[in-house]
Amino acid sequence: PRFKMVSLVGALRGLPGVVTRIAPPARIAGRWACSGAVSETAPRVPAKSVAKWFAGLGAATLGVTGSTWYLNAKTARCATDDDEKREPSLMQKCIAEAVGTGVIVGGGCTVVSAMKYAGAPIGPLAIALGFGGSVMMAIYATRDISGAHLNPAVTLTLAVNRPEDAPAEIILPYMAAQLFGATVAGSLNYLAYRTAIFAAEAEAGIVRGTAASMAMYDGAFGMLVNKRFLKTPGGLMVEIGATCALAFMVFAITDPNKTVPDAAGPVLVGGTVATLILGVAPLTGCGMNPARDLGPRLVTAAVGWGGAAMSPGFWIYTAGPFAGAVLGGALYNMLLT
After folding, report:
1. What are phi and psi of 34, to 5 degrees?
2. From CA 216, how far away is CA 305, in angstroms rounded?
3. Which end of the chain is least crowded, N or C, by CB within 10 Å?
């Protein structure tokens, strides 16, 4: 109809006037952005007039809330400082790290406890999936707040090999939060299975705190090297190798210059953890996370195992992941970036 044609022509003719009334213009990332106050040299344009123009043209939508305009072919909105994502405080980040690490320990270790103490009909695959799924959920829950390190070894390798993701001021607070979260989760796991653990000890005739009692907490809390296959030095090498592989894949999955979809990252990291556990758990338990071992181990020390909680070679579950993670991140940077 003639009326609509005239309206369209008028809208097109008014385009230069609309653009020139919003200042100063700049082309940013494929969109017109005009930041700051409306030009003092040009007449002010009421928000409703601009919105009406876009609605009449039918080419865009417009929202008006503040001082910064973003116009492109599909959308147009006005953003304020309040719209920008605020950086969480260090306390909020540490809380996220504690919660996320607790999710990993709580989710994975309770699966082991269900099998070990309650006779649940599950096997190594279920344990691997339990830990892998817990890692995935923990990352989804915390990555937008703290970056989802959830592992002191990951924090260390990021500080060394990708320092923009782990500035110096977060290193010790993150590690303390991760250990705290793992310890709380280990405590909850013990409270949940306390009666079943006592029953298993009585059935096996094991006195808590003796050397024989170490096998009772193995895997569900702290971990032990499988002496049938390895001694302590061999266990250390296995933990270094497994954590090296994990860190290498974490760097690959989270590399912003690669094509891995951001939404897929947690699933891929969780899948990496599950795969490594399937291959390595029969040898050392596949710790790969100092907090995952040390937190629950401290719980067993406090509830009656005492010195037996610090089994010979227990330190490899801290030293091995730290060394392996730094090595894995360095290898990725050297080989694939």
Report:
1. -125, 110
2. 10
3. N
